Amino acid sequence: MCRNKFFILLFLSCIFLCSCSISKRIAKSAKTFINDESLVNAHAGISIYDASSNKYLFNYQGNKYFVPASNTKIPTCYAAMKYLGDSLVGLQYNIINESTVDIAGTGDPTFLCSDFKRQPVYDFLKKFKTIVYKGEIYTDFLGSGWSWGDYKQYYMAQRSELPMYGNVVTISFKGKDELKISPFYFRNNIEVAGTIDSGFAVDKPWDNNRFFISNGGQKESKVPYNPNIGTIVDLLADTLKAATDIDFLGSFPSSPSIIYSQPTDSLLKPMMYNSDNFFAEQSLLMVSKKLLNEMTDSKIIDTLLKTDFKDLPQKPNWADGSGLSRYNLFTPQDFVFILNKMKDEFGMKRVQTIFPTGNTGTLEGRYKNESGYIFAKTGTLSGVVSLSGFLYTKKNKLLIFSVLVNNHNGSATEVRNAIERFISGLRKKY
């Protein structure tokens, strides 16, 4: 009996010493990373978690708050994976007669989006001569803390209840003085100044959907349009060649009929692979519609923080679905918690189909030797670089990690290089 106790104690001691040894080696690698020339004047936070032993192997400012940029898509992705089901609800509707249908949007960003060739909602609506739009007027087009100066950039497409064409106008240069406009509805909203020789420049006022084209160097540009209710119904009418109307006073069934559009993960994969801000924002609004029957990012965020994320190590300041807002503040330990929760509830097989691995998506050109072993989300804003995800080591240990860097004043590429050296070292050594 005593001998058995001796071997048990010896075994536990070996595990403890091994764990201490690993932590010390990670600390040594982390010190090299933190002291990298690209991070001299920056703030950094690191959390490394062993998923098998459910223990942290290393924390450096893991409980400190950082602006996470697009790592904010991680909690958004979790909420979408949990609440949107296998397929997206593309439309709510109520058939009045064989030629008329009442509809309400669900926030689905795949409607008429060129990335999705199959369009069940479009096929359904084509059957009707009159489409009546019902519901509340959605006007919260931009997220809290977004940079207003970027309103003309494709990555800041405005949010809406019934998105169409990704809520952007695509303008392409096809030859001298020849432009292709999609959707074609906006052809009358575009003014061309002078001769367009070899490319174009585009400008747009904030408060209307007029586009001004002049000679320049662009061959193609995607410019967000303002999805106000008037534009929505007119664009819908032009696309479907149907009569449209707006009726906010008439009744709409409390349990309307629905049409499913796309598999949920077919939206989440490009959201995470390409860091698609629009897909992320609309995903969070769809979760809000599903749980609260209204689209409001502030209310759904508050709800999620009080339920699914009530046990986060540190309560974040969560402002939007995409990470465009600098009001977002999360800790490395928060991301480790959410990623671990994602693994436990949905399984690594599903996670691996949604998160990019080495040399794919936003990790293209990076982590080539770690392809199939790393699954992680990047994040970038001016002065911000982040990477959080999963890593299988050479010894087949599953590590969950989060590396957040704020306030660097140099090259984002150099910071990414430093993070890659650190993470690649983890895989080789542990």
Give the helix/strand layout.
Blueprint: H1 2-34, E1 43-50, E2 55-60, H2 73-83, E3 87-97, E4 100-104, H3 120-125, E5 130-133, E6 168-175, E7 178-182, E8 190-192, E9 200-203, E10 211-215, E11 220-224, H4 229-240, E12 243-246, E13 257-263, H5 264-273, H6 277-292, H7 297-306, H8 332-346, H9 348-354, E14 374-381, E15 384-392, E16 398-406, H10 412-429
Parallel strand pairs: 4-5, 5-12, 8-10
Antiparallel strand pairs: 1-2, 1-16, 3-4, 3-13, 6-7, 6-11, 9-10, 14-15, 15-16
Helix pairs in contact: 1-10, 2-5, 2-6, 2-8, 5-6, 6-7, 8-9
Low-confidence stretches: 6-18
What structural class do helix, strand and pairing data support?
alpha+beta
Main sheet record: 5 strands, antiparallel
Topology, number of strands: 16
- Which CATH-level-2 architecture of the domain at 24-82 and 267-429? 3-Layer(aba) Sandwich
Q: Specify the number of helices.
A: 10
Report the β-strand fraction as a percent range.
15-25%
First-to-last CA distance? 35 Å
CATH-defined fold name of the domain at 24-82 and 267-429:
Beta-lactamase
Order of helices and strands: HEEHEEHEEEEEEEHEEHHHHHEEEH
Shape: globular
Name of the top-level CATH class of the domain at 24-82 and 267-429: Alpha Beta
The overall pLDDT average reads: 93
CATH-wise, what's the superfamily of the domain at 24-82 and 267-429?
Answer: DD-peptidase/beta-lactamase superfamily
Helical content (DSSP H or I, runs of 4+)? 25-40%
